[in-house]
Amino acid sequence: MTDADRHPPGEPDRLLLEDLEAIAAMRRYYRWKADRVLPLLGPRVLEVGCGTGLMLQRLTGCERVLGIDRLPACLERARTAVAGRPEVETRLLDVLDDRFLDLRSEGFDGVLFANSLELVVDDAKALRHAAAVVKPGGRVVIFTWALGTPSVGLQPTYGLRGYRPETLSSLLTAAGFVQVRVRWMNLVGVLAWWLDRPALERSPLMTAAAFARRDRMVPLARLVDAVTGPPRGRILFATAVRPAP
Does pTM top 0.70 for this prediction? Predict the structure, then answer.
């Protein structure tokens, strides 16, 4: 059986949408991520791969927020999530499209990849494009899967990448960024994924109820990360700066 037989055309995108709808149950987790990024992004923010708006709706207190995605179905839900917030806009756009570079005129202070970089076919080009549209002195902020944690669930479906700290650091440096910092995040999440592994080997998707159970572990995860560093984690959290001319 080929990959095409297992996942007919359009099937991966449908699974991604279902996964994003289920993972919305992780309210504490997305609040944690927002707490990490909001002090770093500045007043004018671009989110690349905003999906259904799980982070977009938590990017509050900004002067301007633009969320882009390549999937219309995701953007429909994102627009609903941020309805009534005139400072937030969504747009159908692929980070790899050369039209993305037209965003240079927007003067973004920060570009956010919230678990979207690993979905992009050409991650090096995506980071080069990010470096082109963020203003000098602005930051790129990234959450992405860490290599070496369980590769089940949606990862085989999409061929999602996992990154080592040194690999992600090299990509950011090659894209032209400086002051590159890559840190581990969510040590407790490694244990949670290993516990969920048997179920995920039977089905590529977790249910909303399963995500909600995991979300109850977030206060512990935040405490463990604060105390330990952490020395390892489910997620890599990276920041880098576009140098001034």
Answer: yes
